[in-house]
Automatic annotation (TrEMBL):
Pfam families: ECH_1. It comes from marine sediment metagenome. This is 3-hydroxyacyl-CoA dehydrogenase C-terminal domain-containing protein. InterPro entries: ClpP/crotonase-like_dom_sf, Enoyl-CoA_hydra/iso, Enoyl-CoA_hydra_C.
Amino acid sequence: MIITGKTISAQRAYEIGLVNDVFKAERFEKKVYKVAKHLASLAPIAIGIAKQIVNYSNSVPLDVGLELDAYGFGLVSSTEDYKEGIEAMFEGRRPKYKNK
């Protein structure tokens, strides 16, 4: 698509995994709110590190990006929030993140 300029339908983009969801324009605000609410419920440190790695990985070779990913996982897995997330999963409850 980038090279040829060919466009595809929203449904086709969904089918090939290019987008996560397809919906009517009238549902846009409701969908955005739902996604934002979900993101806000996640561990803030993990989300922040993931965003930084994704942004930086676009400008480095694949092997460097993979190293960053492994480093990021190491950072995240050493946080209190990571431990809380694991405990909550095993206990069948929602995690209570403290941004630590």
